[in-house]
User: Fold Thiosulfate sulfurtransferase GlpE from Spartinivicinus marinus.
Amino acid sequence: MSEFKRISTTDAFNHLQQSAIFVDIRDLSSYQQAHIPNATHVDNQGIHDFLANAELEDIIIIYCYHGHSSLAAAHFFADQGFSNVYSMDGGFTAWQQDYPAVCENTMEE
Ligand SMILES: O=S(=O)([O-])[S-]
Assistant:
């Protein structure tokens, strides 16, 4: 059974202080420029490591650019057995509009 839910940026924001894992599936340079604090960048190369280290009960919030690709990714994660998977509506574009101060980058590191 594969089920995931959709989550608004507001509800996702409320998960920031909790133990949710934010997964950024955009391309690496977009991630490096700006991402949700502590988000993990996961691509096709990194997905196996990620899956090996995550717990099936973890709360996983996936986002892309606009909230379309993350639906397919959330479906995939749910298919792997994760029970708390969310696709963030509006993607990082919406997040940046709603929470412009709550972004970090890894360009200088
Ligand atoms: O990243 S996107 O599929 O929402 S354009």
User: Anything to note?
Assistant: The first strand starts at residue 5 and ends at 7. The mean pLDDT is 94.
